[in-house]
Amino acid sequence: MTQHAEPTAAATEGHRTDPAATFTELYGGVPEGIWAAPGRVNLIGEYTDFNDGFVMPLALPHTAVAAVSRRDDGVLRLYSTDVPGGVVSLRVDELAPHSGHGWAAYPAGVLWALREAGHPVTGADIALTSTVPTGAGLSSSAALEVVTALAVSDLFELGLSAAELAVIGRRAENAFVGVPCGIMDQMASACCTEGHALHLDTRDLSLRQVPFDLAAQGLTLLVVDTRVKHALGDGAYAERRAGCEEGARLLGIPMLRDLPYAGLDAALTTLADAGADESVIRYVRHVVSDNRRVEQVISLLDTGDVRAAGPVLNAGHASLRDDLRVSCPELDLVVEAANVAGALGARMTGGGFGGSAVVLVEAAAAGTVAKAVSEAFAAAGHAAPGIFDAVPSAGARRLR
Ligand code: ADP
Ligand code: MG
């Protein structure tokens, strides 16, 4: 994989440490197996997943890897090579939501969610290592949840489908860790396939693998990690979510997903007449128009006209910036600098307020565009961004 500028903090190929060796060093013996689950970027469809809408993520080559063995004595031991603090030792029958445990709450929450769902999981030794940049909007948390769920499902022969693993991961994050995320991240990590983007209907989790062979088209999708995270983001997600629910309530529909794009203008008038807050009107416009942009990008991919998706990405960014108001100066700068340097289109991806953007660009121009973005960051006094190719990669799988 090409590194166009500063490599991200995590290595993008292989892993910094061998999880099997770490496992043996910590716990003794050989792990029963090794599993991997990727991070993701979302191509289009943002803040739509909690409105029962559509998203279109692809898996990254960056993965969380877990070396795992079963235990039958109720003990759960967790270790990550990526955080200080050593082994976290817990008892599965004492796991309780919102009880802290820092990073270990993500994998521990998965065992809690599995047991809550009635699966006889009696403990495990788990050694984790990940190349997914954390807190960059690339779903390092979902990678951790899904790799844990898959490993435990395999070892205890639970026979869970990829979608069921995703649902367990999301439940861990929502109910155990306490983060109110939608289902996109876990579904992407569990269900994506190499060379494809995932068209996901978050209402019923029906999905389609959409061929997305960038290299064959002479195209590159760059991920630009701004390496910033603005504190504003924490409350803003809940506020947007509440605003969307308010919009649906005023329109008398279960979810904003139920408002077709053709009815958007009339719905906005209805909302204004009903005295809806100006922000609610903007949020509704974003969600309904972004669902429409997912459809547009899919039909462009299906007809092989991937380049024409560029302006749709730009429109998506403008909507996130102006209507949903979840962008930030660094993300706007990526989009602006990339477009000025000749990109086909760009948008922020993930929750916003920092994190990452995606840039669709002719492969031959990828280096020039990446350099222009880095230079724009330097000129604005921002720290150097991490830039890498989003090669559409495989979802969660057993390695050995
Ligand atoms: P994102 O999922 O966008 O990367 P989140 O805030 O949802 O950001 O999740 C990041 C959190 O997930 C980290 O703060 C940490 O608690 C946990 N995490 C992610 N990767 C690892 C890892 N390799 N080792 C330990 N914890 C991790
Ligand atoms: Mg996350």
UniProtKB/TrEMBL annotation:
It is an enzyme of class 2 (transferase). Residues 298-378 form the GHMP kinase C-terminal domain. Substrate binds at E46, Y47, T48, D49, Y237. Pfam families: GalKase_gal_bdg, GHMP_kinases_C, GHMP_kinases_N. Mg(2+) binds at S141, E173. This is Galactokinase. Its main location: cytoplasm. InterPro entries: Galactokinase (IPR000705), Galactokinase_bac (IPR022963), GalKase_N (IPR019539), GHMP_kinase_C_dom (IPR013750), GHMP_kinase_C_sf (IPR036554), GHMP_kinase_N_dom (IPR006204), GHMP_knse_ATP-bd_CS (IPR006203), Mevalonate/galactokinase (IPR006206). Residues 22-70 form the Galactokinase N-terminal domain. The active site is at D185 (proton acceptor). The record marks R40 as: Transition state stabilizer. Transmembrane segments: none annotated. Residues 106-191 form the GHMP kinase N-terminal domain. One of its GO terms (molecular function) is galactokinase activity. Belongs to the GHMP kinase family. GalK subfamily. It comes from the Bacteria. PANTHER family: GALACTOKINASE-RELATED, MEVALONATE KINASE/GALACTOKINASE. The keyword Kinase applies. Its EC number is 2.7.1.6. Pathway: Carbohydrate metabolism; galactose metabolism. ATP binds at S80, G135, A136, G137, L138, S139, S140, S141. It is found in: Cytoplasm. Keywords: ATP-binding, Carbohydrate metabolism, Cytoplasm, Galactose metabolism, Kinase, Magnesium, Metal-binding, Nucleotide-binding, Transferase. It catalyses: alpha-D-galactose + ATP = alpha-D-galactose 1-phosphate + ADP + H(+). Catalyzes the transfer of the gamma-phosphate of ATP to D-galactose to form alpha-D-galactose-1-phosphate (Gal-1-P). It comes from Streptomyces sindenensis. The gene is galK.
